Amino acid sequence: MKSITIKGSERESVGKVSTKALRNAGMVPCVLYGGTEAAVHFSAEEKAFKNLVYTPNVHTVVIELEGGKTYNAVLQDIQFHPVSDKILHIDFYQLHDDKEITLDVPVKITGNSKGVMAGGVLNLNLRKLKVKALPANLPDFVEINISDLEMGNKLYVTDVTVNNYKLLHADNTVICQVRISRAAMKAAQEAAKAAKTATKKK
Hints:
The protein is α+β, with helices and mostly antiparallel strands. The chain is 18% helix and 41% strand.
């Protein structure tokens, strides 16, 4: 999985006054959990999170703090201002090479469905899938090939080929399906009606 580097500074004070001052200065207060020691409080410039937060992609994070401390992590939770949508606070969870992590990963559709080419409509039920893996094995996306999907077919979690990670969904979970479109349904109904009329005339 691709990684983004966030450079920040450890926070000496975590009170409301200092937190407000940070936000007024264009900084985002953050907390890193999951380490062997106490949680790490730090702050970073709001613009540093642009490629991490405002994207459909998922990334791991390298947190570089002043003084040479470095942590590998993933974004765990984020709070936005209800009116301005500015980032108020971010929680990170530290990654460990020997511990599996659970993460929601985007679905990437490949191939041309036979059902869609015949006039059907592809419905994507899940845009992300919950994946469990060691940090080194986390995929950037889960690739779903829809080439064999005919009209009315569904693609289930069990149809997906996985490598070095697990999908944490029930076997009957539908990722996507090809539904008959209104136009195709109308055409089929009209064709059936015309065939019926032709049969009666005979």
